[in-house]
Structures are given as C-alpha cells and as structure tokens.
Design brief:
single chain; 580 residues; alpha/beta; 3 domains; eight-stranded mixed sheet; eight-stranded parallel β-barrel; 16 strands; 13% strand; globular; binds phosphoenolpyruvate; binds magnesium ion
Length: 580
C-alpha cells in the first residue's frame, strides 16, 4: 500500500481499478490468463519485441541518413534494452508466475525498471524517458486496435495520468470514471475545474503517481483531503468508504437549503450563481440552488470538437443554456482560448510562454472572423432573455473599447439584416490581471459589471503558474497583494454603481466566504457542487461579523495568518461541519 498527498481539487472519494493514461491513452487491465493460454501470451510478447525492434532499427537508419550517426546513436539504448535477455526473462516470468497478460507484464516490469533510475545522477535519470518510450512502443504493438477509450467504459476505473488536458477530462465517461489522480497541475488548472464540474473526485500535483502505480491496481482517490492510496488493504478501503459516507451525509444535509435565500442572519441577501462549461450543466447549478449562471466558459465548445463551431453551433449551445435557465440571469463569457486551451496543440509553432501570450481577448481581437461569429450568435440567442456579455483577460483600455466597438458593429449589422437580436446587452469584463484591478476606477466608467477572476488574478499577481505543481504551494488567494486588488475592485464597483461578482474558484471555497462578504461582495459564481456549502456559511453569519473578519484579515501581512484565522472563524460558526 502506498499513500501519496497531492492537491484535492474535486471533492469525493472514488475507489476502483486504476487505468494509466499516458500520452496515448493506454489502459492495461490486470486480466487473469489461464495456464493453457500462457504460451500464446509469450508468443505475443516475442512478436511485439521483434516488431518494436524492427521499428527502432528503421528509425535509427533513417535518422542516421538525415541527421548523422551520432544523433542516431540515441536509439542504441532502446535496442540494447529490447535485446536484453534478462529483461525478456522478467517479462516471461511475470506472465507465467502472475498469470497475467503480456501487456500487463511489460507495464509492470518496465515501470519498476524506470523507478530504479529515480535518485540517480541527472544524465541517468533522463533514461526514464527512454524506458517509457519503449514501454509505449511495446504496448502499442501488443494492444494494437484494442486501445480503450475513456469516453465509453463498461467498468468503473480511476484514471491515473501524468497530465490530462481539459478536453480529455471533459470527454471522460462520467458514470464509470470514479476518480482522477494526476502528476501535474494545480488547484485552478482547467483540468481541475472540469473535474470539479463533472463531479469526478480528483487529486492533482502528485508528481509521480503514474510511475508508482501499475494499471490494474486498486486505487483510492480522496478529493476532499488530496490523498491517493495505491493498492490499499481492506481496512483502509473501509475507512475511506466510511469517510465518504460522512461527507455525503453532510452534503445531503445541505440539500434542504436549496430553495432558501442566500441571506445572512441579519437579512442581507447575496446572489449565488453557478459556473458552467457545457450547456447540460445548467441543471446541476439549479439542482444545487444556484440562481442563474454567473460564468459560462464558452471556449469549451471548441475543446470538445476538432472543427471550428459555426454560428449555428454557437447559437444552439447558447439557446440551450438560456432555455434551461428559464428566465434566470446568464453571463456568457466570450472565448477564452489560448494558454492551456486549444490553440497550442494546433499551432504550427507553439508559443514559448502561452499564459503570457496570445490568449483570450487578445486571441479574439486577432482572429476577428471567429470572434464575430461568436458575437453574432450570442446577440441573436440573447433576444428576449436576461443575458450579459463578459470579456475575459482585459488588460488595457484599448482592448475593452475595441471589443465593445465590435459588439456595436455586429448589432448594427444584425439590425440592417433585419435579424432578431438583443441590441442593448449589458457588457462586463473579467478583472483577472493586476493591470485591470489597478485601473478599476477607469474601467468602471466603461462597463456595466465586473467579474473578478481570482484564478488568473493570483497567477499574474504572484507570478505563479496556476497549473504547475512545483509552485502550487505559492498559489494562494490569501496573499495580501491579491486581497487588496480584490478589495479595490469591489470598492470601485460600489463607487461607480457597477455590480461586482467573483467567479474564480475562491468563490466556491468556504474558507473565504466570510471574508468576501465582509469586503462587500454580493454576487458569487461558483462550481455547482460548492454552491450549497457557500450558502450554508452565508446563512450562518451576519454582515457585521463578516465585516469584522474582513477588517482583521486586511491587517495581516501573510497568507498563512489569513488562512489560519479564516479556518478558525469557520469552525466557530459551524463547529459541526468543520471540526478541529
Ligand atoms: C479566473 O481566471 O478566475 C476565471 C474564472 O477564469 P478561468 O478559470 O476560466 O481562466
Ligand atoms: Mg481566467
């Protein structure tokens, strides 16, 4: 049994057989092979080794021709391994003594082999990549066409991956993927956000869980506490099951709040909205008591398909959301493509620094036909509904004005064409760069509302990549610099009569609910599963108390002090939900 601590990003406990998703999505089940089938498995193994060997020889010869012998010598290690008799023996012994398939033997033996390089000097540690390369090649030659996709599964699994993209996560079979354990990533990476929205328990930032586990192992993913257990014993499984039951009981106890107002004990009402990525998530928001959609991340329309959506595709998706919301308010954010979403994998030359590159509104302003297609669809779909338009990643005034001008132009075009649309849509901007937050008084004169995106605001204020597990401990909304930017933005909104919502993951984190109320926030937009808990806290406090909490916090000079204090406050007001 191996226990690993990572970052819990999506609540819940999942226990199932592990599948390892590498770059090529191989799933190696631990299937039992009867004794009389063992010989056939060994033949398959020999064939795969021979085919892999031939492929590498061809590759080496081609490389030598094109790039010279020296470069081609990198394949000598691969050939050496494939010719290594002792490795062949280990493969065969595993098949024979473990009664397992050839692919399972290859994965087990090579993963153990790769682990031996851990802690060795850098030049040897680099060999790990070569070992995985060989594993991948052998598996491809063994599994061939029977590669299992995670979209349609027949059995429950926990997915272990070095890294997964938001679209891979979005495509996972929601019924059978019971958990996700990922080496890379941070709390607000888009993969984490998607897992949370889909309700798949997830732990990220585990560093090397994929090399410690073997496909077929039983895996526990505890998304509440950020733990992953590989090959647990029975007692441990039982403990986790009990813990999960307690948590589920707490969630059920919150269900009774669904139709009650999100008001403090002294009667100050908050608005609780939900964040969605796909139209069919609206129901989850409403089921949890959300009063509308505060952030619709429309870029996921691109991430789910290989071709660019047409105006009609956009229109249909927006109408679906609006109809499902049945008159409740909806904030549609324009495409936030770029960085970790969509553009890099398709770019001829990927950007060196994509989070500081051509993403979001910048990408849209440089791809006007695409931007105009989306805006036409939004304006058309919005006719007769309560819809607002939100621009992401505004970092200077010109961008905002350009985007607004394009909306005006499109509205005029639609008017001339006699096409039904909403001409006077409220326009807002994300405050998710320090420049936007610092210039919020100027921006407040130009927009109808602000939506604070703390995920990016933290990343850009603290210079910490939101998806990098190596700096995950530095990523915190509790940093005094971030809190001051949030406070200033809320104050600017109050000063100018511009409404302010907060749609970063902070909005759904119970630790910060009191503080945000105290800072003057009145609109929270959260991942659907987090809505009831935030409501519970709102209903358990008073505005006066929350203001006092905020006053104290704004006097602290470190994030640790803030977090400790806020957790203690939470325990004070709801001791049964947050025990010591
Ligand atoms: C944010 O940055 O806080 C935000 C809500 O936007 P996203 O997570 O989609 O970048
Ligand atoms: Mg953002």
């Amino acid at each position: 049994m191996i226990v690993r601590k990572g970052i819990g990003v999506s609540a819940g406990v999942g226990i199932a057989r592990g599948v390892i998703l590498d770059a090529e999505e191989y799933d190696i089940p631990q299937r039992h092979v009867p004794v009389d089938r063992a010989k056939a498995e060994l033949d398959r193994l020999d064939n795969a080794i021979a085919t892999s060997r031939q492929e590498i020889v061809d590759l080496r010869d081609r490389t030598a021709e094109q790039l010279g012998k020296e470069t081609a010598s990198i394949f000598d290690f691969h050939l050496g391994m494939l010719d290594d008799e002792s490795l062949h023996e280990k493969f065969s012994d595993t098949v024979l003594s473990g009664h397992v398939t050839a692919e399972y033997a290859v994965a087990t033996v090579l993963r153990a082999y790769a682990r031996e390089f851990d802690g060795m000097p850098q030049y040897l540690a680099e060999r790990v990549k070569d070992v995985y390369d060989i594993e991948k090649r052998l598996l491809r030659n063994l599994i061939g066409q029977s590669r299992q996709s995670l979209t349609h599964l027949t059995k429950d699994v926990v997915v272990l991956a070095h890294d997964v993209t938001p679209s891979q996560t979005a495509g996972m079979d929601r019924e059978h993927v019971r958990g996700l354990a990922v080496d890379a990533g941070g709390k607000t990476s888009h993969t984490a956000i998607v897992a949370r929205t889909l309700g798949i328990p997830a732990v990220v930032g585990l560093n090397d869980v994929t090399s410690e586990a073997t496909a077929g192992d039983t895996i526990i993913v505890d998304g509440y506490r950020g733990m992953v257990v590989i090959d647990p014993d029975e007692d441990t499984c039982r403990e986790y099951e009990q813990y999960a039951e307690q948590q589920v009981a707490f969630s059920h106890s919150l269900e009774q709040l669904r139709d009650l107002p999100a008001a403090t004990r002294d009667g100050h009402e908050m608005t609780l909205l939900g964040n969605i990525e796909f139209p069919d998530e609206v129901q989850a928001v409403l089921d949890k008591g959300g009063q509308g959609i505060g952030l619709y991340r429309t870029e996921f329309l691109y991430l789910g398909s290989d071709s660019e959506p047409s105006e009609e595709d956009h229109y249909k998706a927006y109408r679906k959301v609006l109809d499902a919301c049945a008159g409740r308010p909806v904030v549609i954010r324009t495409l936030d493509l770029g960085a970790d979403k969509y553009t890099q994998s398709r770019a001829r030359v990927p950007e060196r620094n994509p989070f500081l590159g051509l993403r979001s509104i910048r990408f849209c302003l440089q791809n006007l036909p695409m931007f105009r297609t989306q805006l036409r669809a939004i304006l058309r779909a919005a006719s007769g509904y309560e819809v607002s338009l939100l621009f992401p990643l505004i970092s200077n005034m010109l961008e905002l004005r350009q985007a607004k001008t394009i909306v005006r132009d499109i509205s005029e075009d639609l008017e001339e064409e006699g096409i039904d649309h909403k001409p006077d849509m409220p326009i807002g901007m994300m405050v998710e760069t320090p420049s936007a937050a610092l210039q919020c008084n100027d921006f407040a004169r130009e927009v109808d509302f602000f939506s604070i995106g703390t995920n990016d605001l933290v990343q850009y204020t603290l210079a910490v990549d939101r998806g990098n597990e190596r700096v995950a401990s530095l990523f915190t909304v509790a940093h005094p610099a971030v809190l001051r930017l949030i406070q200033e933005t809320i104050r600017a909104g109050q000063r100018h009569g511009v409404s302010v919502s907060l749609c970063g993951e902070m909005a759904g984190d119970p630790t910060y609910t009191l503080l945000l109320i105290g800072l003057g926030l009145r609109v929270f937009s959260c991942a659907p599963p987090t809505i009831p808990e935030v409501k519970k806290i709102i209903r358990s406090t008073t505005l006066q108390h929350a203001r006092e909490v905020a006053r104290r916090v704004m006097g602290f000079d470190s994030d640790k002090e803030t977090v400790n204090y806020l957790r203690a406050e939470l325990r004070n007001i709801l001791p049964e939900a947050y025990p010591e």
